Amino acid sequence: MEEFSTPVGNLIGELSRLPGIGRKSAQRLALHIIRMPKEETDKLSQAIVDARANVKYCKVCCSLSDGDECAICADPRRDHSTIMVVEEDRDKAAYERTRQFNGVYHVLQGVISPLSGVSPNELRIKELLDRLKDDTVKEVIVATNPTVEGETTAMYLSKLIKPLGIKVSRIANGVPVGGDLEYVDEVTLTRALEGRTLL
Question: What is the pTM of this model?
Fold first, then answer.
């Protein structure tokens, strides 16, 4: 006999497919959603539908945006000569919270990971190289996570960018090895940015 009715079981199944959500967490979320007033569940489901329908990738930096260009790329007050390369949008958000970086970003939408079947061709590396074709960019800061995959991606990017005569730097240690930038506090991120080294 099933623990839950089919609709509840289906909701639990779909929620458990989300990253970081195991079966027990999915069950807890599903039961919470079912207990919510109908107006709230309608707002939640509409927010999901709207986000999926209206969010796209910025044509410049490949971050999530509701327009052709994200607000940072469209801002003339930002330093467009310095690009910080991050893995995901959440890493970009972490650096924005520090309010210490005034350049622009490039979001790879992942890292090179042969064990997971992710090759350089599946990342937004071509778009990054296209941005470096004019003389605007003077420095690329590689701010991938300090994991094996992040370091591999950083070295790969360095080998592609250095021959273009553009300064390539890496955020300093201080960010814990194996950690995610999303969870690092603003002070540590600021120090890592200030102490970056050339690759």
Answer: 0.77
